[in-house]
């Protein structure tokens, strides 16, 4: 990679964090507002005995809460990743890293440290790495294993971000042969593969293909949270790229609502993470009730991370308390029990799910 390319890669990472912190990059409509858990007025549970722990890809986690992949690849992100990793370690939850492409391709110790710091401060935490699906086509398995070794990863996320790439002035818009690359890596890599979207959701049809390709978990990252199309629209405006700015703004609300995406994916795969606009422990509880194994959050942890690990830990403890309360008032003493709790689906999400189901039946007939 050229020195100019290196600078662009690092600057893009820095731009993303700055824009997320300073601009309006949130959308609404996760669908969780249409998921209503049925109240149990007689739960017959001791609140203090409720156990939110889960097993995930062979690892025990204290709660079904993920610090979603956010950053890395710029010196300015090292402190953020250090705080997030320490908090994940102390609370026993999982943490993902932002794309490791810069760590593989840039010869820069400062860039590398923005990734390696997570394992330095969290030697026992469940940490998963991250590469783009488009990069998998370019990398042999030895290169992908370097990303795993870089952070001693327990798993590797492969992110799908083609809408973001289409809006980026410098985006990679060749989406061919990515499924074959995912299947190859899933078969040969030393750790499990998690395939994740980046804010636009995963349909049942895509989940079916990913399941057949052998991926070990699917992270839906649906519509309703941070909009990467919107983020890239801000970047395009700064770069004086009016067409890309218009496209990014037009597609700001594009995607499958997170609740609907979760429902579609759990019908095709038995290990699904619900993320995209998840903001509370109640959202996590709703995600689990509709079939997810865990819920993930990104942006809500970013501001606390700039204040250090204690602020992140406090946010995680708030989420766990909210989740445990939802478990208590649904009579769910464990996450397995919460997955079996009753819920009512209403409103636009119900309409969306019913129409999608009807469309699939018509196609199959």
TrEMBL record:
Keyword Hydrolase in the entry? The reply is no
Q: Where would you find the membrane-spanning parts of this chain?
A: none
Q: Which InterPro entries match?
A: Aldolase_TIM, FMN-dep_DH, IPdP_isomerase
Names of required cofactors: Mg(2+); NADPH; FMN
Q: Where is the FMN-dependent dehydrogenase domain?
A: 179-341
Enzyme Commission number(s) from the entry: 5.3.3.2
* Localization of this protein: Cytoplasm
Which GO terms fall under biological process for this protein?
Answer: isoprenoid biosynthetic process
- Binding site residues for substrate: 12-13, 99-101, 164
GO cellular component entries: cytoplasm
Which SMART domains does its entry note? IMPDH (SM01240)
Q: Which UniProt keywords apply?
A: Cytoplasm, Flavoprotein, FMN, Isomerase, Isoprene biosynthesis, Magnesium, Metal-binding, NADP
Q: Which reaction does it catalyse?
A: isopentenyl diphosphate = dimethylallyl diphosphate
- EC top class, as a word: isomerase
Q: Which GO terms describe its molecular function?
A: FMN binding; isopentenyl-diphosphate delta-isomerase activity; magnesium ion binding; NADPH binding; oxidoreductase activity
Q: Which domain of life is it from?
A: Archaea
> Of which family is this protein a member?
Belongs to the IPP isomerase type 2 family.
Q: What is this protein called?
A: Isopentenyl-diphosphate delta-isomerase
Q: Which organism is it from?
A: Natrinema pellirubrum (strain DSM 15624 / CIP 106293 / JCM 10476 / NCIMB 786 / 157)
Q: Source organism lineage? A: Archaea, Methanobacteriati, Methanobacteriota, Stenosarchaea group, Halobacteria
């Amino acid at each position: 990679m050229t020195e100019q390319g290196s600078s662009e890669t690092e600057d893009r990472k820095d731009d993303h964090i700055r824009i997320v912190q300073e601009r309006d990059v949130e959308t609404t409509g996760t669908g969780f507002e249409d998921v209503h858990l049925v109240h149990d007025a007689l739960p017959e549970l001791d609140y203090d005995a409720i156990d939110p722990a889960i097993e995930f890809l062979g690892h025990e986690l204290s709660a079904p809460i993920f610090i979603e992949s956010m950053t890395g690849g710029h010196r300015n992100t090292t402190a953020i990743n250090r705080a997030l990793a320490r908090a994940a370690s102390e609370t026993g939850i999982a943490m993902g890293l932002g794309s490791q492409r810069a760590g593989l391709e840039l010869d820069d110790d400062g860039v590398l440290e923005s990734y390696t710091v997570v394992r330095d401060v969290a030697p026992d935490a469940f940490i998963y790495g991250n590469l783009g699906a488009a990069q998998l086509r370019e990398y042999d398995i030895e290169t992908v294993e370097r990303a795993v070794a870089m952070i001693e990863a327990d798993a590797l996320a492969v992110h799908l971000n083609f809408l973001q790439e289409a809006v980026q002035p410098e985006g990679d818009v060749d989406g061919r042969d990515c499924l074959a690359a995912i299947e190859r890596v899933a078969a040969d890599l030393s750790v499990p593969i998690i395939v994740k979207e980046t804010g636009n959701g995963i349909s049942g049809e895509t989940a079916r293909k990913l399941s057949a390709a052998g991926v070990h978990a699917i992270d839906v990252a649906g519509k309703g949270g941070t909009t990467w199309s919107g983020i890239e629209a801000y970047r395009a405006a700064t770069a004086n790229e009016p067409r890309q700015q218009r496209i990014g703004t037009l597609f700001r609300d594009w995607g499958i609502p997170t609740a609907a995406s979760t429902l579609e994916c759990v019908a095709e795969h038995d290990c699904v993470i619900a993320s995209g606009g998840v903001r509370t422990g109640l959202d996590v509880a709703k995600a689990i009730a509709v079939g997810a194994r865990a819920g993930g959050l990104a942006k809500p942890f970013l501001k606390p991370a700039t204040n250090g690990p204690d602020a992140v830990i406090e946010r995680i403890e708030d989420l766990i308390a909210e989740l445990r309360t939802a478990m208590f008032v649904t009579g769910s003493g464990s996450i397995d029990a919460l997955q079996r709790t009753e819920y009512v689906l209403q409103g636009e999400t119900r309409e969306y799910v019913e129409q999608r189901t009807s469309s699939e039946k018509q196609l199959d007939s």
